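Task 17 of the worksheet. Students: predict the tertiary structure of the chain below and write it out as structure tokens. Keep your answer in the requested format; marks are given for formatting as well as content.
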Amino acid sequence: MITPKVVLPRNSFRTSLPPFIKRAYRDVRRAASFLPRQVVGTITNVATDKPVVALTFDDGPDPRSTPPLLDVLESKGAHATFFLIGCRAQRYPALVQRIIDRGHVIGCHSWDHRPFLAISAAERRRQLRACEQLPGMTRYRLFRPPYGEQNLASRIDTWRLRWCPIVWSISATDWRDDSAEVIVERVASQLQPGSIVLLHDSLYDVEEPRYEARDATIQATAQLLERFSGQYRFVTVPELMHLGRPQREFWWRRGSKEYFTKLIKTEYRQGEANE
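Model answer:
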């Protein structure tokens, strides 16, 4: 008779430990990783006791949706950080300047939004250097990798070129067709001091053309600012970092190839990239 092999759940020993030992184990691991995280870690949020959060917007600038969003932010006295696509920023310099003039901060979101893990190291560096030539990009040298994709090699490329990667602690997941109310509740349920929130004032790639409209995101931004008025102050990422201790984590992510194959570019965006 063959005795069946017993396969224990992964980390079964750790899961059976008392809670206080688990906490001690996590604390020791985190302490041991402190120095490496300071070198190759990526900022996800800020530890602070002040009532401040940062809204960030990716994939712009977009002449259809960025201006009304700027009006919403100004009407509520809020400031935000815009991670811009280089080829779009080059095409709409007046709109980029309007973002800066309203007191917002701009960062780099690559030149053409290709996943950084799907291109060569030389192409990654070329895109980052091209973005350095755009007005305002190098004031803070903030960078957000397209789709949040990053591995150690791409992180080293940004380190070599002195860019500071910023990701997020809350994703609004506003790239489909959820209503403003759904987006607001998704963010509100996770919001806390020091949060960095991911939103989109435009979409460079979409799964379906109907997802491209940014009305829900603009409405959700207005509702969030109204709902949390007096409870939180909405600031730029650099100001948020100044008001607390940036939290750096090992952020290694690779997007799904199946997801990328579903993405489409409209004729409008293809024309932008080719200019």
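Marker's comment: The first strand starts at residue 42 and ends at 47. Strands lie at 42-47, 52-58, 81-84, 105-108, 142-143, 164-165, 170-171, 196-200, 233-234, 245-249.
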